[in-house]
Design goal:
The structure holds 2 protein chains of 2 kinds. By secondary structure, chain A is of the alpha/beta class. Chain A has 2 domains: about 5-10 and about 65-265, P-loop containing nucleotide triphosphate hydrolases (Rossmann fold, 3-Layer(aba) Sandwich), CATH 3.40.50.300; about 270-390, abc- transporter (atp binding component) like domain (Coagulation Factor XIII, Chain A, domain 1, Distorted Sandwich). Chain A contains 8 helices and 20 strands. Chain A has a 6-stranded mixed sheet with strand order 5-6-7-3-8-9, sandwiched between helices. In chain A, strands 10, 12, 15, 16, 19 and 20 form a 6-stranded mixed sheet that branches. In chain A, strand 19 and strand 20 form a beta hairpin. Chain B is mostly helical. Chain B has one domain (about 50-290). Chain B has helices at about 30-35, 40-55, 65-80, 90-115, 115-120, 120-125, 135-160, 175-200, 205-215, 230-240, 240-255, 260-285, and one strand at about 20. Chain B is globular and about 70 Å long. Residues about 1-15 of chain B have low confidence and may be disordered. The chains are: A alpha/beta, B mainly alpha. Strand 4 (about 100-105) of chain A pairs antiparallel with strand 1 (about 20) of chain B.
Amino acid sequence: MSNVVIKLENVSKQYRLGNVGTGTLSHDLNRLFAKAMGKEDPTMKVGVSNRLDTVDGRYVWALRDINLEICDGEVLGIVGKNGAGKSTLLKLMSRVTSPTTGEIKIKGRIASLLEVGTGFHPELTGKENIYLNGAILGMTKKEISSKLEEIVDFSGIKKYVDTPVKRYSSGMYVRLAFAVAAHLEPEILIVDEVLAVGDAEFQKKAIGKMQSVSQSGRTVLFVSHNLTAVEQLCTTGILIQNGTIGMTGTVDEITSAYKQLSVDENELRRSGTRLVEFLDYKMTDMNGKAAQEVFLGDNFLVSANFKAKEQVELCDMSLDIRNDSNEFIGHITNADDAFEIKNIAHGKTVSVNVTVKNMCFSPGTYYISLWLGNAYGTFDYIENCIRFSVKQGDHYILRPYPFTHRAKTVLQSSWAFK
Amino acid sequence: MNTLNADKPGNILPKEWTMILRPKRNLLDINLRELWLYRDLVGMFVKRDFVSKFKQTILGPLWFIIQPLLTTVMFTIIFGNIAGISTDGIPKVLFYMSGIVGWTYFSTCLNETSQTFIKNAPIFGKVYFPRLALPISVVISNLVSFVIQFVFLCCFLAYFMIQGTDVKPNILILWLPVLVLMMAGLGLGFGIIISSLTTKYRDLTHLVTFGVTLWMYATPIIYPLSAIPENMKLFVIANPMTPIVETFRTALLGVGQINYLHLLYSFGFTVVLLIFGVIIFNKVEKTFMDTV
């Protein structure tokens, strides 16, 4: 173990901006001239880092000075925003294109899956395409023949295997393509965002297959925007930002850093008529101390002050809680507690304390949105304005090991022999 | 071909790594062994080309025969009967068809391999395999159609011989495999050089299509070498296809001019072109995705 199988040393990749393909002759002559004079290549000097909104500079560094070591058996998740350089990194490692500077050292057979069904020919039958696609991915005819049955079974389209793939539905096409890819047996597997295909059942199957690949001790590099899939599959991760490695660490550290990154960039979204509006809000523990963490089973307080601009007869308040994948996990409203906020006079400020009891969400990061309004409309709605995390304590449930199964809630239970 | 050997000292990777990817590699660092490992892929590509070409056509592989047949008929009418160009006393049909069959192989090899990078960019952008596998598969799949056309030509030849026409297939036929290899080599060599250049300079794609047609007129396809006036002979002979086509025809029909020195020149030309082509192709394949 911990035998380095991929090593990147100062790897950078430069691309030309704008209309590639015109005026290249003059660029080439420029380069040749500089070379002949023993000068530095004029096109290499422009050091614009990778930002999608940069317009000055005719060359851009998609990746800049990447140093990375990947070990035997590691399942590495690569996350980052669009255009951060993830795919470029995979392309360099899978030899689709060469780095501009630096060195990539690889130990073992490498197969890349940047797309499913590369090279599928519409006129060929499913079976013929299995052979063709397998060969493109680096398998020999013998290897494919020995696995043909397995591949057909996995794809679940046995009936159609002798039909040209142009007659396939897109789902069948993708199933067949993934089935071939899943039966590759390289020492290093590079996968780019290909699990986002097929129906839910097939996705489950695909993720299962990937897990078994990684469990057999092979190295997997996985790029995806689907953080749940990354968390399920990977053990370690890297976060790519603007062409450089922003962070390396365990997969949980990386995904939460990435989520934090996307939240920080969103300003608070606020909507409503503002007939009544929030003045301030905070989250505290039961002693009134500001808190951002809650242990499982604990209670916490959310207090808010709001002010009416006109007289309002009826006003309800609610808290929506979402997790970091923006799934709606919990909803709390004053109506549930038969607590009425009525007849607020013009200009009057109301202070409310909401006690949230018995936290039962799985450890993770959560966001609360605050709402004021009534049956006729919204007065004020502030999205995801309070962020807190739930930690695993030791008094609600006695689970000595950390939560690995990503259920959304943790239910309290008591156990006894009958 | 020793220069193409990837195992030259100095190119050997340090033991512990199977592969080191660097921005630039040695011009002669050509991994032919890797290409050999992917020989099954070449076979699959050949099969794909063959199967997909005639799927959903009624006549299927008959098209292999119809193409040269119709061209021969047209050449016979236009150049033979209307223009009255000499065929050295050989029946016009045989004369033209023998030229066309050889030329077609060369020109389709050239045309198709010259599109390697542009046509296959979607595949090349997603997965690595030795890029040379594609042009080589093109040359092989065209060889299949060449063989079919050649057999067809032989049928015609046999028919004319039975009719008592004075055509003499001769011992030069033993040269045929070499001639075919040279045609393949020239087509492949020019094709991959052009395809390497088209990744940056698209203009060439326009040039190739009619360039090849023009080239045919500079080759003794519709006229015999003997009909060339002395002052233009050098020009026609400098064309490396000339000795090949002329020898090809002489071997089958027994009439023509054989010059082993010219043939040797063509052979040397082919080898140098191929080596040069592989080197330039190898250099371009590493980064063409960024410019194509």
